[in-house]
Amino acid sequence: MDDTTAEVPGAADENPVVIVGGDAAGMSAASKLKRERPDREVIVFEKGDWVSYGACGLPYYIKGEVESLDDLVSIPPEKFRSERGIDLRTNHEVIEIDPDDRTVTVEPLGNEDTETFVQPYGELLIATGARAVEPPFSGMDLDGVFTLHEMDAAREIRTYLGLETGDEPDHDAVAIVGGGYVGIEMAEAFAHHGLGVHLFEMLPHVLQPFGSDAAEVVEDHLREQGIRLHLNTGVDGFLPRSAVETDAGDADDGFGNGDAIGAVEAGEDRFPVDLALVGVGVVPNVEIAEKAGIETGPTGAIATDEHGKTNVEGVYAAGDCAEARHVVTGEPDHVPLALTANRAGRAIGSTLAGDATAVGKIAGTAVLKAFDLEVARTGVIDPERARSSGFDPVSVTISAPTRAHYYPGGAELQVTMVADATTNRVLGASMVGEEGAAKRIDTVATALSAGLTVPELEQLDLSYAPPFSPVWDPVLTAAKVLAGKLEPDED
Amino acid sequence: MDDTTAEVPGAADENPVVIVGGDAAGMSAASKLKRERPDREVIVFEKGDWVSYGACGLPYYIKGEVESLDDLVSIPPEKFRSERGIDLRTNHEVIEIDPDDRTVTVEPLGNEDTETFVQPYGELLIATGARAVEPPFSGMDLDGVFTLHEMDAAREIRTYLGLETGDEPDHDAVAIVGGGYVGIEMAEAFAHHGLGVHLFEMLPHVLQPFGSDAAEVVEDHLREQGIRLHLNTGVDGFLPRSAVETDAGDADDGFGNGDAIGAVEAGEDRFPVDLALVGVGVVPNVEIAEKAGIETGPTGAIATDEHGKTNVEGVYAAGDCAEARHVVTGEPDHVPLALTANRAGRAIGSTLAGDATAVGKIAGTAVLKAFDLEVARTGVIDPERARSSGFDPVSVTISAPTRAHYYPGGAELQVTMVADATTNRVLGASMVGEEGAAKRIDTVATALSAGLTVPELEQLDLSYAPPFSPVWDPVLTAAKVLAGKLEPDED
After folding, report:
1. B378 at the A interface (CB within 8 A)?
2. To which H or E segment does residue A108 belong?
3. Beta-carbon neighbour count of residue A433 at 10 Å?
4. Which of A195, A200, A235, A192 has its CA nearest to residue A219?
5. CA within 20 to 30 Å of B302's CA: A365, A427, B278, B332, which one?
6. Residue A40 φ/ψ, nearest 5 degrees
7. Euclidean distance between CA atoms B350 and B35, whole angstroms
8. Facing residue for A56 by CB, picked from B339, B465, B472
9. How far apart are CA A73 and CA B3, in angstroms?
10. What φ, ψ does residue B442 adopt, rounded to 5°?
11. pLDDT in tens, B319-336
């Protein structure tokens, strides 16, 4: 059954590479492998309709800046099949992995004529992604309560709001539960349609991974945009319209039944809403892996080595279902983001083609647009997290202009920078402002990968011209101030 | 006379630190030294009126986006004196340095009552800057022929064009000689006022340090903006209006005498113009240093060590008059830019305060706005230059979008990336596009400082969100393609 050699995976195998999951990691691996080794058979089983899609674009589809869900697809399924020679099977769910036999059991969906079958594999890549957390709120099954992790959910939200007719929505208020990326991007999308937006966050601040200094700027901005922010507020559940005694007596407007959401309950308070979006995080889809004896790590995602291999011979994992190594802490971490998935998939494709390639480390670099703000982060910002990884964190927050003081336009950029007091090594940073955060964070991300110290960062020769930066870029200014705190003057 | 100790410069001296030149390097050094050591006496001699000004803003002043020359001043002279305790003397020219006696000879300018005097120093910083090259063109002394390196020249240009009256200029056409930063920024400024612009460049391309791939994009854009580009065209000189037989017979319009420029001569061709701006580079002001036995390096600028010290005991040099060490080649180089001057000045201020601080290396990172384009560069791009430093350069040029394919707006960014085939180390890059070049170049600049290889660059965890980048940032895409060229597939 398994006649691969130790050196080159699959070099002499009779069995195909099987990939479970057809989004970023899976399709990147399939494409890279077929490009390097067109002779290898590659089968991708994807349980849904969609492959290789940009879920990050869903808020912009709901906002209306992206016209069609199809626009979010990078490469259409036909092209993977015809041009890249990948045996891509959508609506096929892998329900079991047998690592001893090197087989997977596959259930075709939505086609009653086709029976469950067993597919042998030479090597297997688990790229099952993650799914939205469904918290144990009452009323999660009411009409008008959504999570946003799937393409189709986005269309349902637009339909529910009446946006598909091209009109402005016939609803008044929505609730977003969770102040993460999705929550904030969706606040912008809903507000764009004239909806009143309640945003609920259990923690003291939105955007927890960005740190409180950046979050406070975002929170002020959200309030300026009319978002009703409920921080430190745990949601208990959702009430049907039939159970809500509204003051305005409009309990039946546009709904016709009592199974639709009418309010959010949070402690003593009730907030009338017509729709709720729950975005409280994602969990990796690891169930079929775990059943097959494939180990998960401390984060709950699938544990992998530097080449994306799991503990089971011949089985790899990549993307939102898998851990990756953090470039600052050196520890396994789970930051399910698009680049990580694409990069790991591509690397595993190379490795399967015989060119052992590291999947790369992560810095947790992220950016989002929050109305008129750019908000970015990289590395380790949270002092507790830094201490638990053995660092002695010191941080500064500065504000600096994004252009020369005399050049028109520009804005203040707030930069928080964190370093280890023992080694002076840069640990992380956040940035927030009306311009210049998104790609400036990459300077710090690069410094993290290279293990630069604050004095080394301070010495970087960064670009300057009046329309684009002050002479001392905000990154350099933050490093200067942080250096002063790391090595206080003796006098 | 000299009772400083070896360990801490000036710790016990009676003599002040003297700084020659009051722009970026000089004032940064003075400010840092006084902050750390308020007890030390610091005298700055500046031969002009202006100190601490942003010469990079002059094109935007001429364009009209910056209202007043005073706006370009970072910190007014009074503030250096009153708040920072610096003995700043404008209109004082240092005409001689005597390193044996540790004195400088100073000539007060524009005040006939004050006589030349001798000032002893404990340590000396030469921060004399650079000046515009005045090529041996005929007619350089005609009215309407300018160089742009001094604040006052910018005001004279506006006055000459009649812009100070608030009207649009009463002239028709101008010539710019030299397709460097200044030439291109000034093309934008002149065109903004409705002037026809001839831009002359001796070499095959504008923006030589950016490489031909980036330059060609800029050249196409300049032509689209109506700039008449004359590449491979050496200018011979300028002719007075009195000598120009214009077809339109308007030789006297608005001028009144024959001493004003009327045409540019280039080989067989004559181009009627009302003004010429000569921007063919700068030369470091090293004359008083050389007379005092202070050595210049291979570039003609003052040779310095890692702390900015010259070959002469107690004498430092920084800014546009001094060399710096290149982070890629390790060789001395002369790239007179604002950040280098500020950083070296500040470091020398620290060193003089007793905290030995490296002036930092340079990568030649630069960016400019060329009408609607951002054009950026860092490191070593020219293959000849790379080879002369012992590298085996390989380069790629790619084009990639600045945003997710489905997100509105965005533009193509062209990235050229160069690496050494022997070590795979990244050597340099250029970028050009309508958005996203200016601060993206800093990612590569950081990689250069850290000595990253192309595979390491390819593994960076850079930021992604649909409004700001595709999943694979253009930097990563360039690195991927370059990696493929460095390690070609065996099959």
Report:
1. yes
2. strand A103-108
3. 26
4. A200
5. B278
6. -80, 140
7. 9
8. B465
9. 74
10. -65, -25
11. 999 999 999 999 999 999
Q: What does each C-alpha distance from B83 to B75, B76, B88 come to in angstroms? A: 11, 11, 12
> Which letter does DSSP use for residue B339 in this model?
H
φ, ψ for residue A272, nearest 5 deg? -65, 125
**Angle at CA of residue B485, ends B483 and B491, nearest 5°:** 105
Give the H/E segment covering residue A476: helix A474-486
Contact (CB<8Å) B471/A443: no
CB-CB contact of B148 with B58 (8 Å): yes
| Collapsed DSSP state (helix, strand, coil) of residue A70 | helix
Check CB contact under 8 Å for A361 and B465: no
Residues A216, B131: Cα–Cα separation, whole Å = 47
Locus of tokens 């024959």? B258
Tell me if the pTM is above 0.90.
yes
Is A471 an interface residue toward B (CB < 8 Å)? yes
Largest separation between any pair of C-alpha atoms in chain B: 83
* Res A428 pLDDT > 60: yes
Q: How far apart are CA B345 and CA B33, in angstroms?
A: 10
Higher pLDDT: A257 or B447? It is B447
What does residue A414 show for φ and ψ, rounded to 5 degrees? -95, 125
> E strand or H helix at A278, and its extent?
strand A275-278
Report the C-alpha gap between A384 and B302 in whole angstroms. Answer: 49
* pLDDT digit string, tens, across residues A378-394: 999 999 999 999 999 99
pLDDT above 90 (res A147): yes
Burial classification of residue A485, based on how many CB atoms lie within 10 Å of its CB (0-12 exposed, 13-18 middle, 19 or more buried) = middle
Cα distance from B72 to chain A (closest Cα, Å)?
6
SS3 A279: coil
β-strand pairing of A393-401 with A17-20: unpaired
Angle between helices B181-192 and B212-224 (to 10 degrees): 10
State whether B369 and A465 contact (CB < 8 Å): yes
